[in-house]
TrEMBL record:
Belongs to the acetokinase family. Its cofactor is Mg(2+). One of its GO terms (molecular function) is ATP binding. Substrate binds at R101. The lineage of its organism: Eukaryota, Viridiplantae, Chlorophyta, core chlorophytes, Chlorophyceae. This is Probable acetate kinase. It comes from the Eukaryota. Transmembrane segments: none annotated. Pathway: Metabolic intermediate biosynthesis; acetyl-CoA biosynthesis; acetyl-CoA from acetate: step 1/2. It holds the Pfam family Acetate_kinase. It comes from Raphidocelis subcapitata.
């Protein structure tokens, strides 16, 4: 298997209900290559494969191909033909392993080799992630059909990093039967990103991961915050589903559970519509009619009161979690890490979140903060800041690739 890694490639795929995101890596050393997205699977008239590759001179080569794609298997077959034409004519023989991003793995605590037992657990978890696990299973089935039994497949779970939460953090104060019989508890999500952020922050600070206490902020259309104690997740803002926690693009985040019950009783809204209201029509969209924070910021700058309110609610919720997780870490915070679309690219959001945290030991360098956009990585706190503040562009595909190599190739993968 070591020789296969040295000569082979690694394919990472993330299957959505009508999409297939992909990235190809050289397996050893682990280097990212061409990546892209197949969209509108099942809509034969509009399905599209788009891809890009960053060249050594810093420029980017791009492709776009409109082609009928009826299901995930035909999508993957189309992808392999595309890679054969543009990367290597023997690409199917070169792929040494496939890494799959799966949202929910119940109690699975690490990346694992896919077998029938793991697939059954993913199927069971689909009740808790109905929008995500079934497409993930479709991607697994397609990849296993295309590559056959000789190529190993690894599942990397969004929930795995958070399996280190202690019971007092993951239990809800509900009758115990709901936990024992229906697995109702906090699971947390974005775990692959939070794991990558903690590991990268530790490396940037020159300390072992096991000696790092950090608050990692994955802020995008979907947002979450995690408390990392000595390299392990000990609390996280998302819960049984990704709905809990921060205000997001279209998700409400934390909410009195009586609110949806009251709305259902007084308006006649059914369970399915209530679910859509909470997940797809709330958050920034619900507060000001726009789910893109960039547009909210523009409107706020022009004096729009609803946009200003939406921004205030968003910032307050993030800041509140940072404060709560400072307590969860017993006041010992080495770093606050910002990432994802908003966290990586909005100096304003970072400044507003950190602006009132001086008493916690946070001192922001305004100039460094303003410059840290567009995929840049670095520190935005002043040298005298007790808590270091970092911007780290998340790379979930790289993390999936690293974990896949570790599972399939053992110690060699860990050394990468």
């Amino acid at each position: 298997m070591g020789a296969a890694a040295e000569a082979g490639r690694l394919l990472v795929i993330n299957a959505g209900s009508s999409s297939l995101k992909f990235k190809l890596f050289a397996a050893a050393p682990l280097v990212a290559g061409l990546g892209g997205l197949i969209e509108r699977i099942g809509d034969a008239a509009n399905s599209t494969l788009s891809a890009k590759l960053r060249l050594p001179d810093g420029s980017t080569q791009k492709w776009e191909d409109k082609t009928p794609i009826t299901n995930h298997t035909t999508a993957l077959e189309k992808l392999m033909r595309f890679l054969g034409d543009n990367v290597s004519s023997s690409i199917e023989q070169e792929v040494a392993a496939v890494g799959h991003r799966i949202v929910h793995g119940l109690d699975i605590a690490k990346a694992v080799l896919l077998d029938d037992a793991v697939i059954k657990k993913i199927e069971k978890a689909a009740a808790l992630a109905p929008l995500h696990n079934p497409p993930g299973l479709a991607g697994i089935a397609a990849a296993q059909k295309v590559f056959g039994p000789a190529v190993p497949h690894v599942a990397v779970f969004d929930t795995a990093f958070h399996q280190t939460l202690p019971p007092h953090a993951y239990m809800y104060a509900l009758p115990m039967e709901y936990y024992k019989q229906h697995s109702i508890r906090r699971y947390g999500f974005h775990g692959t990103s939070h794991k990558y952020l903690a590991e990268t922050a530790a490396a940037m600070m020159g300390r072992p991961l096991g000696q790092l206490n950090a608050i990692t902020c994955h802020l995008g259309a979907g947002s979450s915050v995690t408390a990392v104690e000595r390299g392990r997740s000990v609390d996280t803002s998302m819960g049984l589903t990704p709905l809990e926690g921060l205000v997001m693009g279209t998700r409400c985040g934390d909410l009195d559970p009586a609110v949806p019950l009251h709305i259902m009783r007084t308006t006649g809204v059914g369970a399915a519509e209530m679910d859509a209201i909470l997940n797809k029509r709330s958050g920034l969209l619900g507060l000001c009619g726009n789910n893109d924070l960039r547009n909210v910021i523009e409107r706020r700058a022009k004096g729009d009161p609803e946009a200003a309110l939406a921004m205030d609610v968003f910032i307050y919720r993030v800041r509140k979690y940072v404060g709560a997780y400072t307590t969860a870490l017993n006041g010992h915070v080495d770093a606050i890490v910002f990432s994802a679309g908003i966290g990586e690219n909005s100096p304003l959001v970072r400044a507003l979140v950190c602006g009132e945290l001086q008493r916690l030991g946070v001192i922001i360098d305004a100039e460094a903060n303003a410059e840290m956009v567009g995929g840049r990585q670095g520190f935005i706190s002043k040298p005298e800041s007790r808590v270091k503040v970092l911007v780290v562009p998340t790379d979930e595909e790289l993390s999936i690739a690293q974990q896949t190599v570790g599972v399939v190739f053992g110690d060699m993968g860990e050394q990468m």
